[in-house]
Amino acid sequence: MSKYLVAALYKFVRLEDYAALRAPLLEYCEARGVRGTLLLAAEGVNGTIAGPQAGVRAVLAHLRADPRMADLSHKESWAAEMPFYRMKVKLKREIVTMGVPDIEPESMAGTYVEPQDWNRLVDDPQVVVVDVRNDYEVSIGSFAGAVNPHTASFSEFPDWVRRQSQPGGVLSGKSRVAMFCTGGIRCEKSTAYLRTQGFDEVYHLQGGILQYLEDMPSEDSRWRGECFVFDERVSVVHGLAQGSYGLCRACRQPVSEQDRLSEFYVEGVSCPRCHDKHDDARKERFAERQKQVGLARGRGARHVGVPPAHTASPAPGRQD
């Protein structure tokens, strides 16, 4: 039976005193047996925590006791094993890195669209639908007809917008843009950025892909493929059931069933994407790590640095 509550959270809100919040928040979490990672920045808070139900709920209440975070929302799941080794509260310039100063998602984000209204919006031929996730995430699934910016990191997104706003680009002359991401945090920032660039009607999917897959019956869905998630399930499908993808421990990218049949796939060491990107010495280290993982599993133990398989739900706040 699952006994650890996992809470993924984020909120864009001005926290000018964020550095002063770090030590008391860390102490509060540790005193209640809560572990995970929380990011604090002047633009807000973002992270995933886990622990005894009472402890996690106490931390959430502690955050909401600050009037600036009174309406903080979170997503819950349960884990049979503690998915984190320690509690970390980190100070950052941004809670999700875009690299553009003075973006204010708390006041400038686009219009939220509920999952039940999303199909009607994206079916409109006048709307440009943009997937703001990274290329390796898009590669395993997306909404039908969505534009893939082919970015390796979120910080590349503003440059893509600038290029595609030029004559001939997919955004050129367009005023209606719908955007989506895994859990919502990247969409809030990207829609705010587009509004600063003069786009009049910018929308984003409330709750992200995960909420859509949870709420939308598969027979009515515009989603195609699977959704990459930042936990040991690797991917999910409708109903948030576990998907078919595994994870390459060398490059941290998803591997399909076909990838795992490749001569270049060695569990924990390489996959078709990265087999030629690491030298022999590094591959030897990966192989030794995988050997230790196997030995730990054989003892029924958990190897440091490898989370328990398929226990926690995705953390759209921190990783998204």
UniProtKB/TrEMBL annotation:
Residues 123-221 form the Rhodanese domain. It catalyses: uridine(34) in tRNA + AH2 + O2 = 5-hydroxyuridine(34) in tRNA + A + H2O. Keywords: Oxidoreductase, tRNA processing. One of its GO terms (biological process) is tRNA modification. Its EC number is 1.14.-.-. SUPFAM superfamilies: Rhodanese/Cell cycle control phosphatase. Pfam families: Rhodanese, UPF0176_N. GO terms for molecular function: oxidoreductase activity, acting on paired donors, with incorporation or reduction of molecular oxygen. Residues 288-320 are annotated as: Disordered. HAMAP family: TrhO. Belongs to the TrhO family. Catalyzes oxygen-dependent 5-hydroxyuridine (ho5U) modification at position 34 in tRNAs. This is tRNA uridine(34) hydroxylase. It comes from Candidimonas nitroreducens. The lineage of its organism: Bacteria, Pseudomonadati, Pseudomonadota, Betaproteobacteria, Burkholderiales.
